Amino acid sequence: MGEPDGNEELELPVWARADAFPEAGDGYGWINRKGRRHASASEEELAKTIREDKDSAVDLVWTPESDFCRVPEEVEAFEEPISEVRKRWATDDLADAQHRLKWSGIGLAALLGYMVFQIWNAFPGVEKANGVSLIFQEKMTRILTGLSSSTAVGICLLAFLVFAFIPWYQAQKRMREIRKSGGRPAPVIPLIRFETWRDTQKAPVTWAILGMISLSFIAQVWFDKSIVGFHGSIQNAGLVKGAYKEGQYWRLFTAPMLHGGIVHFVMNGLALLYLGKRVEVFARWPHVPMVFLFSALVGGEASARLMGATSVGASGGLMGWLGFLLVFETLHVKLVPRSSRRRLIGGVVMTALIGLVGYRFIDNAAHFGGLLAGMAYAGIVFPRSSSVSRPRMNLTDRIIGTGSLVAIAISGILAILQMAD
Question: What is the pLDDT of residue 182?
Fold first, then answer.
């Protein structure tokens, strides 16, 4: 694979340029995900390392033909070992996902069966107390109503969807893609190169926001003496709708810093790192806190107007980042591979599906309020561009971005103080 000349380089996005990755070493070798270099004695030894890679440790490789490191899929000599290892990974992932789907499905079915049994056994008492005899259709209606109104069923169904069905579907999809391409890595090289480059980029502002939210979570654990679910901290600093409407407007700022439990926090934390880093890398750091804060506030206001239950969580801001990326990357179509943009759309679909399943305890108003806020922000602030270059920052961006980051930090401090009170 030849190196592009200077003019060709200028027509490529930063992740597609030859110098997107570190300079090559002498002879053959590879770099792991921690950035450590490992020399190989020959091409055959490096190919063997790739073929036997069990944990996706080989991130980049270098060969004498290139001045810079590359993803292994770009080196024609490694097409066969890459094909083998991709098939093995996909097969192992699918087997693991099928196993998880099977046992999660059995557990969910057992819970549903137990609840149906309980409801059915209660029918004689209901009939005797009301002096009626329920027909079969009425019993089925009562059973369905009982199941659909059960929080335990909703939580278990949501967990089954997130941790079993969606991973299984994604594993099936990867296997179909590999079979369709015959195991050849060429069709996915742009996506692999893009994701590898993105993973090597620094995102200090995203980590700072995660740190602020993590401190609030630790405070919740401290004051409520629990990690599974919180009560006192949520009442003190969450978006309690009655208190907000009576004038405690500060709750709009503190609620996004809180979470309902360890699962809620972990899921939001993972989404925060992925989406925030993507915004920071491509749209520059000032827009990370600006979009998050704006979307969290709009999502909170939508929740206050449309939902009666108390709400907490950073989901409004996270959905704002997702909506921002959908519009921003559409308006800057040359910045990222098309297949990567499709994954963002998949994120919206997955969120909608999760919201549909868990509508009784998921704040869909905050989710979609934040999503629309992020989309509107990107559409207003960033005009359409055919350039392969990332937008530049100006002084105004830095000032407002710094102010937004400070506001998020103050929100976290205020949330902790309110929990302590």
Answer: 64
Which of 105, 165, 152 minimizes the C-alpha distance to 360? 152
**Do 271 and 363 reside in the same domain of the chain?**
yes
Contact 85, 55 (CB under 8 A): no
29 and 45 share one domain: yes
Q: Exposed (0-12), middle (13-18) or buried (19+): which is 74, by Cβ within 10 Å?
A: buried
Q: What is the dihedral of CA 415, 418, 420, 421, to 10 degrees?
A: 180
Last residue of a domain, one of 118, 149, 179: 179
Expressed as residue numbers, the domain containing 49 is: 6-80
Report the domain count for the chain.
3
Dihedral angle sign, alpha carbons of residues 91, 96, 102, 108: negative
Percent of the chain exceeding pLDDT 90 equals 51
Residue type, 208: A
3-class DSSP assignment, residue 31: strand
- Residue that the structure tokens 């108003």 belong to: 365
Q: Which two tokens stand for residue 195?
A: 């994701």
The residue type of 60 is L
Claim to verify: residue 103 and residue 212 sit in the same structural domain = no
- Work out the pLDDT band at 2, boundaries 50, 70, 90: very low
For residues 117 and 328, give the distance between their C-alpha atoms in angstroms, rounded to a whole number.
51
Supply the angle between the helices 287-306 and 395-420 in degrees, to the nearest 10.
50
Radius of gyration of the chain (CA): 25
d(CA 43, CA 324): 44
The β-bridge partners of 61 are 30, 70
pTM over 0.90: no
Q: 157 and 91 share a domain?
A: yes
